[in-house]
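For the sake of clarity, the format in which proteins appear in this thesis is described at this point. Each number in the token line that follows is a code from a learned vocabulary of backbone shapes. One such record is shown here in full, so that the layout can be seen directly:
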Amino acid sequence: MLEIINLKNEIFGPVALEVNEGQSIVVRGASGSGKTRFMRAIADLDEASGEIYLNGQDRKDLSAYEWRKRVRFVSADSNWWFETVEEHFDPEFELENNMRKLSLKPELMNWHVSKLSTGERQRLAFLRAIADEPQVLLLDEPTSALDENSTEKLEQMIESIKSNGTIIFIASHHSEQVKKFGPNEIFFSNEAVEVNLSRPEKLKSSIK
């Protein structure tokens, strides 16, 4: 279980919710309303006050590195640190097999990152994130650069990971994607954050 208690910074909050294993939460709202900053804060990439627990483990008791292995944020256009794709993956990860599942050619493993298209980088960034088998996956517009076929395959992989117990947060503007990963959602506006879960809880919190 992921428990968030009064998480806030200068853009959003406070936000409080509990998410069980295998649940997905859709994160919605206008650009600049705090969606990305909220997910980055959960991953300890942006400063925010409040408390976060994962299966009873306080975020503050872990190093940033250890927390981010368990709670992974994936940007719509992630950063890359090495020249080639393969250098970003542990040799034990079944990279070639997973690449095929996302319609990526195995020879891309040896390519320089600079040669990849935006859609190829987006899918490979997703694979890089799941290689550590995180317990929470925070996805910021994960299919924004993908065509319909590639989107469907990535969504199938997300569903598979979710069925194995991973908690999914997904920021999306696509109505079909919202339906697929709903009905749980967090909606950000300029006035408030509204949390609507399939359980009876409905929490509101003001944005400063």
In short: The first strand starts at residue 2 and ends at 8. The chain is about 30% helix and 25% strand. The two ends are 28 Å apart (CA to CA).
